Every structure is written in structure tokens, then in C-alpha cells.
Amino acid sequence: MSIRDLKGPGRWWALAGCLIWLAFTLFPLYWAVITSFKSPLGVVGGPTYIPFVDFDPSLTAWSELLSGARGQFYATFIASTIIGLSASLLATFIGAMAAYALVRFTFEVKLLSAVIFVVIAFGGFLFGRHMLGLGQAISLIYAFVAALALAIGSSRIRLPGPILGNDDIVFWFVSQRMFPPIVAAFALYLMYTEMGKMGFKLVDTYTGLTFAYVAFSLPIVIWLMRDFFAALPVEVEEAAMVDNVPTWRIFFGIVLPMSKPGLIATFMITLAFVWNEFLFALFLTNSKWQTLPILVAGQNSQRGDEWWAISAAALVAIIPMIVMAGILSRLMRSGLLLGAIK
Amino acid sequence: MTRQDPIKHFFIWPALLIVLVISIFPLIYSLTTSFMSLRLVPPIPARFVGFGNYTELLQNPRFWHVAWTTTIIAVISVALQYVIGFSVALALNRRVPGEGLFRVSFLLPMLVAPVAVALIARQLLNPTMGPLNEVMTFFGLPNLPFLTETRWAIGAIISVEVWQWTPFVILMLLAGLQTLPDDVYEAAALENASPWQQFTGITFPMMLPISAAVVFIRLIESYKIIDTVFVMTGGGPGISTETLTLFAYQEGFKKFNLGYTSALSFLFLIVITVIGLVYLAILKPYLEKHR
Asked: What is the pLDDT of residue A332?
């Protein structure tokens, strides 16, 4: 019994509110489940709610789906799983490292170096594209390398102008999330096509899609993990530093285990984002590495009002996430409890 | 306090490089195209038009209409998500009976693909075969054209957004609530502070930083809404539920008007940046006060 537990009538009001929200949350999912077991006639005849009472369940939709009559289902499912897991693991890991660095270490980037980077990248691209007549990808790669080299080089020498700190770098990361994804998706498609012409096939490959997903998840990972790391007590790390424990061991041995709830929450959010993402998958894949949302959306345009098939397809995209949520919330609760005891 | 250590470069460069590579190309590509007249269908050679695309857009009433619709959907749905999400998170934090079950099931919607949600919502809101209108008939209310009349269509989109994204607010606020120290509440209970006083005096101010972050993320994300609208109404009736991304999609990938689309996305970016800056400027004094 904690001081924060509800007592008296407030407890029952809270319960009532939660129950109403539970009904609102679960009804659409319940509807999708029962609809997937309806026969074509059962759908057209108007809404029905309870299997065996209202309507006779039928396995039409599921047998069609699992027998592969509606597109290459297993391949899509496996592709979605591989991309989702690896992209969100990578993004959480790389993002957590960056977030930790941004919380604990001092970074100073001269504004002028950043300006040099942008100017050289833009100028080099335009120069290569229009003056030298190079391809888009080639001029972009040259411009990028030159801009990066010059920016790093210029940060070594004494430059006038304001200095950007950690908060500005975090802001830069997060602001990448603001960019409307539709243009990024199309521009990425063009870039990948150009790379394909040079021999690096990226469209419809594992590498291409995973890379895009990692990059687009990183800002949110850094933003979330920074808050979790900032809340950790710095004394533990300081004690370890006094004992001369190297920084990488402090991070992997102390900081990561302590921030397990945060890591799991962040991983969950990233995985849900990658699993359900529609726009990038639409542009960057066409057959082999197509993901489930594309397949589900395809069901809509191909099948129109065939609700039983659409519901079954939607459920295949939904169920793995629900199973994962169950497992992870269990993990998270034990992790959170551990954190509270320590 | 931050410190100096050469290992920091090893920690930050992977993330920095990946984001740099993948963000700079779209930026360069679309900023340069936004000053050109460039169409893929029919293929016209690129022509420099300066701010032509921008002035054309700003004079287009459709742009303002679309921006307004997106704002309405984003602001109302995020406000509802925050209020409902905070209440639910508070209840869960206070160990309402059945909290374990609630905790798992409340997070479900966030994990469902927006495409799938929109397909299910279409079924539920269907005027003849859907359950919602049958319930309305049962209570003697008129049947409503949920997806074909502007107001109801926007309402339907907002409900779907609230259904899908309130869990995100719950998840983040619950994580925040669990880091609040118990002793403050014990002290407040000794002083006989009412639950409402405890909320306004302790919980809300201490949750302000994480609240600000959550609302900010949701607001930015809501402005990008496309899949739900695309499947549910397709922007209709007419263009009355069209959002900014959907407008860009129509211009860019139906008409392949790349210059115009790039200009639109930059205006979109400016709109979002302005909203973000205004939001932060309004919140800053409060955030600093409670630090």
C-alpha cells in the first residue's frame, strides 16, 4: 500500500472511466476479429456482433489468406519481421549511445563550421550536377565528403562566431523529424535509383529500407533516451570513474542496465513505427522486401467491400505487435520494479 | 555537469553520420527543385523560376484551406489525447483495480498499423453495413453520413487519431509519473492537501517538462497525417478533409509536379517550425519556473 494509491469513491470513478476507455479501445479490434470470421453473406446482411448467436463463423477469409490465395503472405511477413526487429534494435542502440554522449559529454560545434558544411554540400551538389555534368548520386557523394571534411577541418582552427552546444545538437536531431516525410521518401527513392545505376542496389533491398528506417527513428530515440539518461543519478557513474572504470564499460555495464525501462519503451515505440510505416515502404520496395502495411493497403484497393478478407489481412499486421506488447509490458514492469528497489 | 572525453566521438558519430546522410539529400534535392519548374509527366526540362512556385502556392486558396484543416485535426486531436491520456495515466499510476489488464490493453491502439485502423474505421462507420449507425437507429437517432459530410468526416478522423495515439501519451506520462518521488506526496498528505491541490501543486508542475515533450511530438506528428485520411475519406468530400501531406501527395505523385511539391513541403516545414517555436516560446517561462 503506497501513499499514492487511490482510496474511497475516487477509486471507483477511476475504474469506471478506465472501463469506458477500455470499451472504446477494444471494440474496433473485436470487430475486426469477428468480421474476419464472417462469411461473405454475413457481412452484407448488416452488422452482427456475437459469433454462434448472431452469425455462423466461417473460416473462408483465413483459409484463403493462409493458403496464399491473396499474395505472397509468408514472404511479406518474414520481411516485415526482419526489417522491423533489426532496424529498431540498431536505432535504439546507436541512438542511445548518441543520447548518452549528449547528456554526459561536452560538445562544441562552431556555427561557422555548420554553415560551411551546408554551403559546401549545396554548392558542391549544384556544381557537380550543372557545371561538371555528373550524375545526381555522384555529385551528392562528392559534395557530402568534401563538405564533411571541410567542416571537420574548419572546426580544428580558430573561427569567430557563436558556438553550438549539446542542446543545439539535440535540437538539430529532433528537427529532422519535422521534415515532411513525403518529400524525403521520394528523394530517397531517386537517390537509391541513382545508386542502383552505379552498382549498389538499394531499392527493394534489406539494406536500403533498414538504413532509411534507422535514420528516421534516430531523432525520436535520441529525444526519448536523453530524458531517461538525464534522470539517472550521476553519482554512480562518478563513483565508477573514481575507480578508473573506462567510459565504455560505464555505459554498457552501468548506464544501459539502469535505463532498461527507458530502452524497452523506446524500442517498443521504434518497432511499432517501423512495423506500421507505410510511405517509405511504398517507395523503397516493390516485391521482395515489401512490408505488411503495403500488402494490407493493397487488399483494400483490390477487394473493395470484402470486409472478411480485409479484416483478416489487417489482423495479421496487428497480432504480432499485440503479442510483443504483452511480452514487453511484462518485461517492463519487472524492470521498473527493479529500478524502484535499487 | 558534462565532461570532456575523446570517446564521445565514438558515441555520437554513428548517429550523426546516418542522419546527416539521409537528411541532407532530401534537403538539397527538394530545396533546389522548389525554385524550379520541374514536371515528370509530361517531361518538361527543368527551368529556374525563383520564388514562382511559392507565390503561386500562397495565392492558392486550396493551400490555406488544407493548412487550416490540418491545423484543426492536429490541435483538437492532440488536446483530446493529452487530457484523456493524462487522466488514464493518473488512474493507472494510482493502481486502479485491474491495472495490469488496463495497462496492456490501453497500449494496443498505438501498435496497430494506421492503414489497418482506417480500414476498420471505414467498416464501423459504414452508413448501411456498419454497427455505429445501427446503434443510432436503435436509440431513435437519425443515421449520419459519417465519412461523406465534412464535419462528421473531420470528427471521424479526429476520433481515429485519438483512438490510435492516446496510448502514446499514456505510455510517456506513466513513465514520467513513476519517476516522481513519494516523499513529496507524503508531505502533502500530512498537510491535508486535497487530491486536487496535490495535482495542481505537485503532479502537474513536476510533469510539465515531459508533458511539453509529449505534446510537441504528437503535434508535429499529427501535422504529417496522411494514411488515415487517405484510406478513410481520400480527402473528400471534395477537398474538405484534405491534409497537407495528402495535398503534397496529390500534386507530387498524381501530377508529378515536383517543383511545386517541393515548394509546398518547404512551406509545410516553415509552418511546422513556426508552430514549434511559438509553442516553445509560450512554454519556456513555465518550464524554467519549475526547474
From this structure: 61
Report ipTM for this prediction.
0.82
Q: Does A46 touch chain B (CB under 8 A)?
A: yes
Position B227 pLDDT exceeds 60: yes
| B97 φ/ψ angles, rounded to the nearest 5 degrees | -55, 140
Q: How far apart are CA A294 and CA A275, in angstroms?
A: 11
* Chain B (213-242) residues lying within 8 Å, Cβ to Cβ, of chain A: 213, 217, 220-221, 224, 226-227, 231
Residues in chain A within 8 Å Cβ distance of B195: 10
Half-sphere exposure of A39 (CA within 13 A, CB side): 8
Verify whether the Cβ–Cβ distance B129 to A95 is below 8 Å: no
**Interatomic CA distance for residues A58 and A51, integer angstroms:** 10
Contacts of A315 in chain B (CB under 8 A): 116
Average pLDDT, chain B: 82
**pLDDT tens per residue across span A8-32:** 777 788 888 888 989 888 888 888 8
The domains of chain B are located at 42-289
pTM of the model as a whole: 0.81
Q: State which H helix or E strand residue A163 sits in.
A: strand A163-164
Q: Which of B29, B213, B268 sits opposite A190 (nearest CB)?
A: B29
Query: Residue A317: its chain B contacts at CB < 8 A?
Result: 112-113, 115-116
Q: Would you state the pLDDT for residue B232? A: 81
Domain A59-107+196-342: which CATH number of 1.10.3720.10, 1.10.260.40, 1.10.287.70, 1.10.645.10: 1.10.3720.10
- β-sheet bridge partners, residue A55: A51
pLDDT tens figures, A180-232:
787 777 778 777 877 888 878 888 889 889 999 999 899 889 988 888 888 88
Selected for mutation to probe chain A from B4, B70, B104, B115 (highest A CB count within 10 Å) is B115
Rounded-to-integer distance, Cα A221 and Cα A173, Å? 10
Tell me which architecture the domain covering B42-289 has in CATH: Orthogonal Bundle (1.10)
B281 touches chain A (CB under 8 A): no
